[in-house]
Amino acid sequence: MRITTVPLLGIAAALALMPATACGPKADDAAKKASGTTAASPSRTATPSPTPAPNGVEKLRPTKILARARKATLAARTLRLHGTFHDGNKILALDFRYAGAKEAVGDVTMGRERFTLIRIGRSVYFKGDDAFWKSIGGKGAAQLMSGKYLRTTSKDEGFAGLAEFSDRGKFFAELFAPEGTVTKGRTEMIAGTPAIALRDQSGGKLYVATVGEPYALRMGGGPGNRLDFDGYGAAVAITTPPASQVVDASALKP
Fold this sequence. Notes:
The chain has helices at residues 11-15, 25-34, 62-75, 130-145, 160-166, 168-175; strands at 78-87, 90-99, 103-110, 113-120, 123-128, 149-153, 183-190, 193-199, 205-209, 216-220, 226-230, 246-248. The protein has 254 residues and is of the alpha+beta class. Strand 4 and strand 5 (123-128) form a beta hairpin. The longest helix is centred in the middle third of the chain and has 16 residues, at 130-145. The chain is elongated. It starts with 10 loop residues before the first helix and ends in a 6-residue tail after the last strand.
């Protein structure tokens, strides 16, 4: 439950290699290619029971509860992950919605900088505000990418950290990895749902629902570090950005 190791993670280093003057017909051609990507359809799920039955996980060993929570959370068709955490001296805020294993859309805010990420299959679209692009590549990068999405793929080594963040399987595997021994805490109410607390030796806490599916409901790691898991089963529509707003990363390489 290492909330402070959220992999954001090579983004700055990867984007710093982007030439600030790479624009023109090649980028436009790449945008046309991107328009062929299909949009993800909203997931259809059964309406949850208004009175979910107890699942009994609080009676299990801590490691078993953690395993059940990881499995249930990864198996959910859709969910939302949002909250804030510290990365060194920075406070980061994220708000993501996941549909299936490799489809996601969301935003990350780092101080005055913000970026949006869309993942559809192998395609990853990345859009930063002007403040973000200036911090990465100066005014040239901001002028080039203002209002644009940078398209790359999950196989692009330069964006491996970014792609992993949008890959629920890999990202959640890191989030759910405990540090040292896992112990049980007390049962508490999390957003109106009873949950059992798990704690590892880093001080991280994970709250697991004790009714219905044993979903993860909240993860905490000290003051200012909290991620909430909710929106289970809610429809999520993830669409491809307009071709006119897409610049292919391959067009920016020397």
